[in-house]
Specification:
119 residues; seven-stranded mixed beta sheet
Length: 119
């Protein structure tokens, strides 16, 4: 059974940084696409960043220049380095993975990790 587990969320002051991690278990091959989504309180889920095999990372305009997505070298692991955090970044952050090279992977999902940015 494929499982995605996020970690690294928490409470941080505006201007601070957090690094989210997502590890996949239950599968032996490397997903072609992995990404991070977020769902702010009372709002819909949105794509934050994604990365595909052999391609450039893709970012939402709201996080460009502040967030960096990267993949681990030996496993289905993806990271999201979040700098210069703002209160509007407060959300539950979800990891997702996909078989295809696509900007919005969604074949598998994690349960989410809460990020709260205080002003």
């Amino acid at each position: 059974q494929v499982q995605l587990v996020e970690s690294g969320g928490g409470l941080v002051q505006a201007g601070g940084s957090l690094r989210l991690s997502c590890t996949v278990s239950g599968i032996i091959f490397r997903f072609n696409a992995m990404g991070w989504y977020r769902q702010p309180p009372g709002k819909q889920r949105e794509l934050v960043a994604s990365i595909v095999s052999g391609g450039d990372p893709n970012y939402a305009d709201s996080v460009k220049g502040r967030f960096t997505i990267s993949r681990g070298s030996t496993a289905n692991t993806v990271y999201l380095q979040m700098n210069s955090l703002k209160p509007e970044d407060t959300a539950v952050y979800f990891c997702a993975a996909g078989y295809r090279n696509e900007r919005s992977p969604g074949d598998y999902w994690g349960k989410g990790t809460l990020v709260t940015v205080s002003s």
